[in-house]
Fold this sequence. Notes:
Elements: E1 8-13, E2 16-21, H1 26-39, H2 41-44, E3 48-54, H3 60-72, E4 76-82, H4 85-93, E5 112-116, E6 119-124, E7 133-136, E8 139-142, E9 151-154, E10 158-164, E11 167-170, E12 180-185, E13 189-192, E14 195-197, E15 209-213, E16 219-223
Parallel strand pairs: 2-3, 3-4, 6-8, 7-9, 8-10, 9-11, 10-12, 11-13
Antiparallel strand pairs: 1-2, 5-6, 12-15, 13-14, 15-16
Amino acid sequence: MEDTKSLLQIKGIRDGLLVSIDDAPWEQQRSALLTQVDSQPAFFQGARLALDVMTQVLKVDDLAELRDQLSERGIFLWAVISESPTTEKTAQLLGLATRISKPRPEEARQFSIADLGEETALLLNRTLRSGTRIEFPGHVVILGDVNPGAEIIAEGNIIIWGRLRGMVRAGSAGNVAAVICALDLSPTQLRIADEVATTLRPRIDPKPEMARINEHGKLQSENWSPDR
């Protein structure tokens, strides 16, 4: 059986996830997508999904079946992009969008998903520019900067190997044990669970810092060292 990952390309876009398929038969594509979803439920749970089906000619029953199967798994299919007028009309009949905002070239790079047993981490090897929004049901690791106007929301920890200047929220589902770490911690807004910190001004001599909720329930930052 052909590797299901070879049939699909998954990218992060401003409005959620974009799944692009190749020219294999539709039933094979549908099966590959559901297999991928079932293999990483924590990653896909609650996702907004746009589907690029290229030249596939799909009828109402085809898309309605997939929409319902994704919905059963907690995934919202909101858009279908196609080069086929028939498929485009089908999507419109089902109330699905047929156009999405094009991501910047750097936003279109494929990201990595690490399976950590019961936990999942999203690794992005790039700087997040203004207007970029990342939301993930696990940990998020950024190898780059987070610029002002960029936003990260994670149910787990957020680790930034670079400068943090944007908005970040860790423990978004209420995990007060989540932490936010950065080599330069100067966000426009920092939040863990429901605790919010005021703007942290850029340091003259920045050092790696970790933000966490202390034993008194207050959000604080401290030096970040590997043994923590």
